[in-house]
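Residues determine shape. We examine one folded chain.
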Amino acid sequence: MTTRPEESTGAPVGSATGDAEAVPRRRRLPGARVLADGAVIYLWGEIALALGFYAVYSAVRNSNQGGTATALRNAENLISTQRFLGLYHEQTLQAWALHFRPLVIGANYYYGSLHFVVTIGCLVFLFVRWRDDYPFWRNTLGISTAIALIGFTFWPLMPPRLLPHSFGFVDTLARYPTFWSFKQAAVNQISNQYAAMPSVHCVWAMWCACVLVPRLRSRWAKVVAVAYPVLTVVAIVLTANHYFLDAVGGFAVLLLGFEASRRFTRAGRGARPSPLPVGVTDSPETDTPETDTPETDTPETDATG
């Protein structure tokens, strides 16, 4: 939730009353973050917005199941396209991975948990350390996730794990222990089994990499951030939840969300960029008053002369 300076103070930016009242009024509510351009974001507002958005997203996603026959036909068409492109290797890779039980179990946990944990962590990181960048990247994530609903609604796709046995895939979440399985009654009733194109896991993973890589200082941390979407593609394939083109679709959706956010986001982008995280100052600026001190003696010298 973002408010503009005019909305929070009741006076135009730059006016006497606006400058006098802006800071006190913004600080009356807890969790406020004032951006460089004067816009204000609130922690409680962002949490409410995220929960509300995800509730609407889940409702829309799960209300458009699509027919089994249509989802299977779309899967067969996608497999034909991947074969034409030389990309249909999902079954071969999974068959190899099934010989290494810890690898498959690890992929199950990776697929079932990290996309929430890492994405939420990146949002918190932006809100706390890079607050001027937060509105832009929050909007990029939200727009991209919303665009994914178009694919779920109009192009239901049967994931590899639900294909007939003749295709050779295994539902690893059902075969090996993990937090949950799509075959559990509660999960099966609330989850759209055919919401596979694009892969939201890949949308969110690449978003996290875009957020983290330019802002992390450690080279190894950057390497881990770059590896995160790559490992996500590996996990969705080994668990037979997606095809390679689902990942490509996810990355394309993120690009669309990025461009839309770049065009429409205003908060935090008006006054200046944010080259430094919150709490870090640029040392040359702090030295400026010291370089200006000789100038204060100039009038005295002129007066004596």
User: Anything to note?
Assistant: The radius of gyration is 25 Å. Residues 1-54 form one domain. The longest strand covers residues 32-34.
